[in-house]
Amino acid sequence: MRLKNQPCEAEIAPGLEPIVSSELADESIAITHTEKGLIQFTYTGELADLRQLKTVNALYLRYQFPIPRPKALLGHQHFQILLNAITRLQQAYPPETFRTLGIDAAGSDSSVMQRLKTELATAAHLYPDTEKGDLLLRIRRTRDQAEGWDVLIRISPRPLATRAWRVQDYEGALNAAVAHAMIRLTRPSREDRYLNLACGSGTLLIERLTAGRAQQVIGIDHDPFALSLAQRNSTASKVKPQLLQGDVRALPLSDASIDKLTADLPFGQLVGTHEANRTLYPDLLQEAARVARIGAPFVLITHEIRLLENLLRQQSAWHLEDLVKITLNGLHPRIYLLRRV
Known about the structure:
Blueprint: E1 2-11, H1 17-26, E2 31-35, E3 38-46, H2 47-50, E4 58-65, H3 76-91, E5 100-105, H4 111-123, E6 127-128, E7 135-141, E8 149-154, H5 176-185, E9 193-197, H6 203-210, E10 216-221, H7 224-237, E11 242-245, E12 260-264, H8 274-291, E13 297-302, H9 305-314, E14 318-325, E15 334-340
Parallel strand pairs: 5-6, 5-7, 9-10, 9-12, 10-11, 12-13
Antiparallel strand pairs: 1-3, 1-4, 2-3, 4-8, 7-8, 13-15, 14-15
Helix pairs in contact: 5-6
């Protein structure tokens, strides 16, 4: 499916705007508007290429209607525009990819929205869904205009951040789009010897290998169950990181042997405890410094902000180069880009 001058909107984790903008720039996509949690752009090219964006949570085709209220979408002209857009999207996928249609909007339970959902679903040979549906429409007022409504159609049956390779869930697993943003901060290259501390079910490992080849990709975790999930997810993704069971405070690696490091540190909520983190964090920083080469980046994410920042002030091995504040599942963790000095 080829698009021409199609308005689009990327839904992203608030705080990742600069990193997502960088990925869009790499694809020569010109941004038209940015605000917290979303980026709008106009796109000409193949829909399949848009589906390859890795740092966005979900991506939508945006259609603007100069109408006073959503009821006007039931009129023949506007209804046909929507139906044609839905039909083109369906044709871009194998049959039966989309089975249900849902509408996400203020007043989605109103009679108008229910009628619109039912009629669109019937015309597109889909089932109306009480939840969000495979084929999801978001309807809202057009921003910064006195009159008008936008209809956004998600380009995929699931959000882009819901990776197909995630065949095994793990409590507290990192959002894959956020993980890929962290990988971009390391500036990956083919020569990397990369280490993911406390790798869990493998999200950062898989996103690193998705970003390109490396000399070595190592994940270490103390939990054999987590490593078994990482193995299954890696197999589904058709990548082969080296998985090690061990203590991140006593790594089975040589001094100054690693070029790039990442970690999704336990927040002390779903995973780990605040008390345990007080001893884990300083030991992990020290051991990471031992195996990191001079100049190596260490990108980590945590919600233990006060603990980590106090530790960073007390040590001299790591320089804080950048800090990204994000919102994720109602929490406000921070991504830290450290540099071995």
